[in-house]
């Protein structure tokens, strides 16, 4: 696994995490498979460490991943006795956000429960929120019916012996495979049209500005009519209502209506 090529990432789905990895860990029947899984997703009490210390304990497939790491968490003694789990670390604590959600398989069957947590530095209620987050998964299995009863599976049971967590850092930037140097798009927008003389590109970048420039450029014939000098400015200010003018002849330069001719026609 140390000779993996660049770009290789361990990126399982939620269904794969529960249906394969967590289920096999809970059953623990195949020792050869357990040895392999321990190298991929190690068993670790993550609450004994701060989140920024966890990447060094990650498995072979995610130790060099800069964004997410996976661990099996054994059930704590306090939780086994019916108490609440302790999620305190030396520098802070994990706090659950929202209600637990259900995880479904491809055939729309509930296979697990998912809880999202955020790490805070300090102590509650004065902790300070960080960018570290965690998804904790617990598996739901069908309890086997006893031999004296029917052969069908029993009611679903939530298993607590092990949970599987995905630790990651919340980032406002794009993911690693989508990142680009900052300012490239802005530089292209500012200099692309000027360098190549592409007037069509300039007009398409800001169609609203093009509409205002067309509406605010009065024709020579309309400029001679003093009563209509304020119309272009009004149209430019209401460019969101006025459609784009495509004809070079403004619509306000139509010939005036001959009222005498109209009156003679009616009479």
TrEMBL record:
Signal peptide feature range: none
Pfam entry (one): NAM
Domain annotation NAC: ranges: 4-170
Protein origin, superkingdom: Eukaryota
Region described as Disordered: 214-238
InterPro entries membership: NAC-dom, NAC_dom_sf
Name assigned to this protein: NAC transcription factor 038
Provenance organism: Jatropha curcas
């Amino acid at each position: 696994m140390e000779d993996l090529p660049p770009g290789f990432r361990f990126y399982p789905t939620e269904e794969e995490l529960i249906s394969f990895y967590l289920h096999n860990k809970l059953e623990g029947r195949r020792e050869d498979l357990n040895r392999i899984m321990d190298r991929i997703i190690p068993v670790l009490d993550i609450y004994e460490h701060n989140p920024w210390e966890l990447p060094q304990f990650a498995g072979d497939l995610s130790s060099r991943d800069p964004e997410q790491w996976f661990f099996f968490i054994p059930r704590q003694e306090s939780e086994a006795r019916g108490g609440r789990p302790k999620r305190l670390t030396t520098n802070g604590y994990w706090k659950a956000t929202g209600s637990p959600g259900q995880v479904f398989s491809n055939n729309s069957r509930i296979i697990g429960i998912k809880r999202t947590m955020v790490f805070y530095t300090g102590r509650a209620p004065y902790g300070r929120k960080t960018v570290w987050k965690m998804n904790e998964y617990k598996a739901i299995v069908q309890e086997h019916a006893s031999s004296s009863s029917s052969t069908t599976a029993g009611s679903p049971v939530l298993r607590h012996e092990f949970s599987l967590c995905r630790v990651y850092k919340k980032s406002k930037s794009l993911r690693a495979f989508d990142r680009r140097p900052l300012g490239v798009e802005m530089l292209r927008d500012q200099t692309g049209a000027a360098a190549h003389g592409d007037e069509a590109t300039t007009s398409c970048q800001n169609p609203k500005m093009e509409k205002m420039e067309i509406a605010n450029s009065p024709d020579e014939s309309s400029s001679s009519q003093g009563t209509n000098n304020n119309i272009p400015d009004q149209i430019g200010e209401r460019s969101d209502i006025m459609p784009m003018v495509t004809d070079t002849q403004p619509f306000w330069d139509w010939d005036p209506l001959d009222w005498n001719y109209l009156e003679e026609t009616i009479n």
